[in-house]
Amino acid sequence: MEKRRYYVSVQARTMVPNQGDAPYELEIDATEDEAERLGRIFDEIDKYDEALGVQTAFIAPITDMNHENKNGYDYFLKQAYQLIYDLGSEETREHIHSMHIL
To answer: Which superkingdom heads the taxonomic lineage of this protein's source (predicted)?
Structure first.
């Protein structure tokens, strides 16, 4: 499959093929399948983020559920950064390396 450039924002969990379509922090070159994989990872992060937000809104005490959601969020966030690193431009890889997240 042919790769194309995507502009990615982990914070907003967006990935667009045109540079001016949305703010972005990182650039990747990905096949359609790889881009879909990153999109699915972003969906998982959203699910955990939403669960954590609901728990925080009710000022929930630290529970196993909080830990499970936090661990799930962290797991998928790391997966996203690893995939972005693997597909990223040289500048993207340097930026992620400087974050010491992987």
So the answer is: Bacteria
Q: What is the Cα–Cα distance from 20 to 64, expressed in whole angstroms?
A: 42
What is the value of pTM for the model shown? 0.84
Contacts of 96 (CB under 8 A, 6+ apart): 26, 81, 84, 85, 88, 102
What number of residues does the chain have?
A: 102
The candidate with the shortest Cα–Cα distance to 9, out of 99, 97, 92, is 92
3-state helix, strand, coil in the chain (%, to 5): 60, 15, 25
Average pLDDT for residues 3-28, to the nearest whole number?
96
